[in-house]
Amino acid sequence: MNQQPTSRYDSFSLFLHWSTAVVVTIAFILGPGGFGRLMRQGVDPATRSDIVWHESLGMLVLALTVLRLAWMALRPAAPQFQLSGWMHWSAKLVRIALWVLLFALPVTAFMALGSEGHPLTLLGGVRIDRMPFIAESRVAGLADWGDVHQFLGDAIMWLAGLHAIAAIFHHVVLKDGVLMAMLPRRKSR
Ligand code: HEM
């Protein structure tokens, strides 16, 4: 693998980053409001396209996140930027929080479904009716996992927004190439 200093991420890293951003945003928009009420009314979630799409896109985010983590261990050297003290630490903190949320969202969704006995319903008719290992676990009753999931869903959008504002600040004010590192290279004519 190439370990030379570089100013850009490789194209597969770009694909994983931007597809995650788009899919998380669509999953957030399709977040099934009133899920608990629908379940109490006996609605089968498989008949609700917002729920099926939300859960399928959420699972796709999980797959992209696992792939991204694996790719980080294998990919060519990533660009390195010298940032001042507080910028370095705040950027690092936001990045760690985004990683934690990308894993915590599916985990809390499974906790919500499993602890309340609702099925996981995905595109293509994929369905898991029961998750006994969650329902019977001690953590199932520790929280309203649907509320926790909803809170984390809002939090990831706020943090992603902050992350995007910081990237624009780097581009417009600091002009240091941080944003360009995550954009596709323009074809030279
Ligand atoms: C990218 C990741 C995800 C984001 C940003 C996200 C975001 C959200 C948000 C904001 C809500 C609340 C919607 C509202 O009340 O208006 C929600 C609810 C829900 N999400 Fe997700 N979600 C993600 C992944 C998942 C996954 C992977 C699943 C299933 C495996 C899932 C299943 C659910 C369910 C069942 C609810 C309803 C929870 C309840 O009210 O009890 N989500 N999600």
From TrEMBL:
Question: Per its Swiss-Prot or TrEMBL entry, what cofactor is needed?
Answer: heme b
Domain Cytochrome b561 bacterial/Ni-hydrogenase intervals = 8-184
The record's family statement is: Belongs to the cytochrome b561 family.
Keywords assigned by UniProt, alphabetized:
Cell membrane, Electron transport, Heme, Iron, Membrane, Metal-binding, Transmembrane, Transmembrane helix, Transport
Membrane-spanning residues: 12-31, 51-72, 93-113, 155-183
Primary localisation category: membrane
The record's subcellular location field reads:
Cell membrane
Kindly provide the name given to this protein in its UniProt entry.
Cytochrome b/b6 domain-containing protein
InterPro entries reported in the protein's UniProt record: Cyt_b561_bac/Ni-Hgenase, Cytochrome_b561_oxidase, Di-haem_cyt_TM
Q: Which domain of life is it from?
A: Bacteria
Q: Signal peptide: which range, if any?
A: none
Xref: Pfam families: Ni_hydr_CYTB
Against SUPFAM superfamilies, the record matches this protein to: Transmembrane di-heme cytochromes
Q: Does the keyword Secreted apply?
A: no
Membrane-topology descriptor: Multi-pass membrane protein
